[in-house]
Every structure is written in C-alpha cells, then in structure tokens.
Amino acid sequence: MFHYRAVSAAGDLSAGSIAAGDADEAAFRLQSRGLALIDDLREEAGGRFSFADWAFRPRPEDVTVFTADLALLLRTGARINEALELLADDAGAGRLRPLLAELVRRIHSGESFAEAIAKRPEAFPPIYGALIQVGEAAGALASALEAVAAGRQRAEALRRRLADALRYPALLLLGAGAVLLFFLLVVLPQFANVFRDFNAKLDPTLAFFLALSEGLRTHFDAVALTSAAILAVAVAVFRRPSARAAFARAFARLPFVSVVTEQRTATLFCRNLALMLASGVKLPDCLRILADMRVFGPDLALGEAVGARVRQGGRLSDALAETGALPPLAVRALRLGEQSGQLPALAGRVADYYEAKLQRTLDRVVGVVGPAAIIVISLIVGGLIVSVMTALLSVNQAAM
C-alpha cells in the first residue's frame, strides 16, 4: 500500500492509498486515472514482507466464511459491533480473531464498517470495500454481505477447479521425475559393472542412460548445488512484479493457456461487473476496482485503458472491443446489455456461459493430459527395463 497526494486535471486535490507491487506501478496507476502526484509516494507501515504476518494472516476462505456468518447474524437483528464481537469470541474464529478484534475496536471508536475494513486491504480487497460501502449507505448491509459472500464462493470454486486441473498433471510429472531419478541413481548402477565386465553390447538408449547415471553420481554435489542456486535465483527474480508479469505474458501465449485465460478473464470480469452494478456501484468505479484486481491478467495497462475510455465518455462495449480485452461474443452481449439497460443481467449471463465453457475445457484437458502423462512415463520406464533385460540376455548368451 502506497499513500499519495495528487491533483486532478480539474485542479482538485486528493489523497489516499493505492495497492501496487512497487512505487513505479502505483505511479502508473495514478497517472492512468488522470492524477498528478504532488509528493513522493510513501509506502505505508506494514507494507513490507513479514513472515509472521504471512504465516498467520487470514486465508481468503476464512474471510468468505466470516462474511456469510456476519450476514446471517445481521439478519437475526444483531448490530454490527455485536455481531463482530460474537464472531470474535467464537471458538472457530482461528486466524480471524485478531482481525475481528481490530474491527470491533475501530467501530467502537466511531468508524463505519466500510472504513474499518478499508484499513486492512490484505484481507478485504477493493471490491469487498466498495460493495460494503454501498450497502451501508443504502441501509442494506446484510444484503451486501450476502452478495459478497456468494461472489467470493463462486470465485473460490473457480480457483479450485483451475488448481485441480493443474495439480493432477503436475503430480504425475513429479512422480515420474522421482521414479526416473531413483532408477538412474540406484537401479542402473547395479548393472553398470556387469555390462562393463562382460563388454556387453548396449543399445543407444541404454548407453545414454548409463552415461547419464554415471555423470549424476560422479558430480552429484555439483549438480545439487547448481540446482539449488538456480532455484534461489528464480525465487529472487520472481519476487519482482515485472518479472512475474513478463513470465505470465509469455506463458499466456501457449495455445491451451490462451484459451483458458480468455475464458477465465471473461468469467471474472463479467461476474464481478454484474455483482457491483447490481449493488449500485457506478460503472467507472467498477472498472477502477477491476483494474486493481487485475482481472485482465498481468497487463495492467489494459485494465487502465478500458477504464480511461469509459471515464472519457465512451461506451464499455466499445472500450472492450478496441482494446481486445474480452472475446467478441462477450463484447457483443455486453453491448446488447448497454442498449437495453440490462447490463448487470447480461453480464451475469455471460459469466455463466464462460464459466461453463471453462469447466468443459478443463475437463477435456484433465481427461487428455492424465492418460498421456501415464503413457509417457510407461514408455520411458518400460523402455529402460527392456533395454536392461536385452543387455542381460546378451551377457548371459556370451557367458554360455
């Protein structure tokens, strides 16, 4: 979080905080919104990495459960401070207990719930605060909390499906690597001396793996240190937001990844847009929040460009079409929503459509990648076993 003081093109002074990976990114975001900095950006206290904060901070799933529980308590007639105190005293509060205690203190000091959660952006993202602020202003905080909880539950379900689709092939490849490494370091050396003593005739595949096995065993320390150094450098590089963004852009160009990314982007953008518009958040504010959420991926300029075109008086569908931020079908549906005055409803339907498409795509990929990985592993291990047995048979025949 970076604190800023800036002036708009109309000469209005403004001050506040903005979330960003570094000061350059924060300055770019403010400039994209038509704000000129008066003072240097100042990183707010607590913005630096702390292992304790990272290890014990609430998980997104915890915040979602808390949101649903808070809405339920408010529906029963409890006041916001009473509901928060009940949740803080609950045995299942866990990691949320310090956060809830802080919210209770802030509310007792006179802050609204929206103002209190705005002080903890690591737990409550911008869309959360915007919807709560609108709900408090309209006197419908319970309804706003229910809408937030429902939206977060859908988003978490989508993330779980994506993670499950990637986890299965990753575990298969990890298992295959472990089996191959065990074979090279433990199994093949048992036969290497036999083949060498009897001068057995080896096929090229077995000869290659025997040479690889000997090289790994001879230079194991050097290989391990080099691997650790490469891993450390990779971790250091990927801590930089610019490096992560560059890798994500390159990765997104892969054919399958580009399809999944397009469907995921359309789902997240339309789902959150429908949620905020239905709750009463103005369209320019929706686009600013969505840009902060990086729904368009690592390309920060894309989200800012869409918001800038709308703030200048353009239509949302035209801005999306010009920037290519969403697929043509989604843009066409949103244009119909703008023309009919039913943009929230049409955005929700587009989100349902692309979420279903994404689920089918992931199911197809898991159905193909899993068997393909098993076949590749079987061919490698089976080929090695056949090569070893063939060489042993040739040694046996030579001995006879």
Question: What key attributes describe this structure?
Answer:
400 residues, Receptor-associated Protein, single chain, 4% strand, 17 helices, mainly alpha, 4 strands
Radius of gyration, CA atoms, in whole angstroms:
28 Å
SS content category: mainly alpha
What CATH architecture of the domain at 255-357 would you give? Up-down Bundle
- The portion of residues forming beta strands comes to under 5%
Main sheet record: 4 strands, antiparallel
Query: Helical amount among residues, as a percent range?
Result: over 70%
Separation of termini?
78 Å
What are the low-pLDDT stretches, counting only 5+ consecutive residues below 50?
A: 46-54
Number of strands: 4
Instruction: Provide the CATH topology of the domain at 255-357.
Output: Receptor-associated Protein
CATH homology-level superfamily of the domain at 255-357: Type II secretion system (T2SS), domain F
Shape: elongated
Mean pLDDT, to the nearest integer, reads 80
Question: Order of SSEs, N→C?
Answer: EEHEEHHHHHHHHHHHHHHHH
Q: What is the CATH top level name of the domain at 255-357?
A: Mainly Alpha
Summed up, the helix count is 17
In brief:
The protein has 400 residues and is mostly helical. It has helices at residues 23-32, 51-56, 60-75, 80-89, 96-108, 113-118, 126-137, 141-197, 204-218, 220-238, 241-252, 255-279, 283-292, 300-311, 316-323, 328-340, 343-399, and strands at 2-8, 13-18, 35-37, 42-43.
Notes on the protein architecture:
The protein is mainly α. The chain has helices spanning 23-32, 51-56, 60-75, 80-89, 96-108, 113-118, 126-137, 141-197, 204-218, 220-238, 241-252, 255-279, 283-292, 300-311, 316-323, 328-340, 343-399, and strands spanning 2-8, 13-18, 35-37, 42-43. Helix 8 (141-197) runs antiparallel to helix 12 (255-279) and helix 13 packs antiparallel against helix 14. Among the domains are: 2-48; 53-124, Receptor-associated Protein; 255-357, Receptor-associated Protein, CATH 1.20.81. Helix content is 75%, strand content 4%. Strands 1, 2, 3 and 4 form a four-stranded antiparallel beta sheet that branches.
